[in-house]
Amino acid sequence: MRIDILTVLPEMIEGMVNCSIVKRAQDKGLAEIHLHNLRDYTTNKWRRVDDYPFGGEAGMVMQIEPIDRAISTLKSERDYDEVIYTSPDGETFNQPMANSMSMLDNLIILCGHYKGIDYRIREHLITKEISVGDYVLTGGELAAAIITDAVVRLIPGAIGDEQSALSDSFQDDLLAPPVYTRPADYNGWKVPEVLLSGHQRKIEEWRLQQAQERTARLRPDLLK
């Protein structure tokens, strides 16, 4: 998988893509992540990527020209499955979406900034708009980092134990059950006996019951 991220602040994402599982996936040759500074695609001497909006609304708007030039340059080199725009009014990102995207080959993620982007970009260049929640961030860089991390970790081989990803929260519309490790007794706080029993069927039944109970209590919307 190759992910190209278009941003005015690549330094906001550099740390994330160069550590932990995302870096491991790149080191293994499972993923390529490239950061592109949109200012490199400007033609003005100030490297400006924004301007005042028509109609006099407050705030600044990202211009169409540098974004079009960046996307066109990348598309001239390879085919892309999706050109994604991170936007608070996009489709809400979730685990099923991450699962589907992990099977694609090439993605472009455009990070919004300022008041937003010239709407013609969304009409003519973007194929998918994604939101990471019902709130507004200063820019789309954190959203792009979230999407990248959630997708790359699902690529086979990125995680040492692939079964671990399959038992994460939301994979089966349930929250994950509680997990414990050594010591089994700490200051009188004890690990549930069933997990120490070695009886795998009873352990799996306990995990399912706990997952269902936690989901009903914390995220009943998932059970509808």
TrEMBL record:
Catalytic activity: guanosine(37) in tRNA + S-adenosyl-L-methionine = N(1)-methylguanosine(37) in tRNA + S-adenosyl-L-homocysteine + H(+)
Binding site for S-adenosyl-L-methionine: 112, 132-137
CDD domains for the chain: TrmD-like
InterPro entries assigned to the protein according to its UniProt record, in alphabetical order: Alpha/beta_knot_MTases, tRNA_m1G_MeTrfase_C_sf, tRNA_m1G_MeTrfase_TrmD, tRNA_m1G_MTases_N, tRNA_MeTrfase_TRMD/TRM10
GO MF, one annotated term: tRNA (guanine(37)-N1)-methyltransferase activity
Methyltransferase listed as a keyword: yes
Location in the cell: Cytoplasm
UniProt record, GO biological process: methylation
EC numbers, comma separated: 2.1.1.228
Keyword RNA-binding among record annotations: no
Protein keywords: Cytoplasm, Methyltransferase, S-adenosyl-L-methionine, Transferase, tRNA processing
SUPFAM superfamilies listed in its UniProt record: alpha/beta knot
Ranges where the tRNA methyltransferase TRMD/TRM10-type domain occurs: 1-224
Enzyme class: transferase
NCBIfam families: PRK00026.1, trmD
Role: Specifically methylates guanosine-37 in various tRNAs.
Xref: PANTHER family: TRNA (GUANINE-N(1)-)-METHYLTRANSFERASE (PTHR46417:SF1)
Family affiliation: Belongs to the RNA methyltransferase TrmD family.
Subunit-level organization: Homodimer.
The protein's name in its UniProt record: tRNA (guanine-N(1)-)-methyltransferase
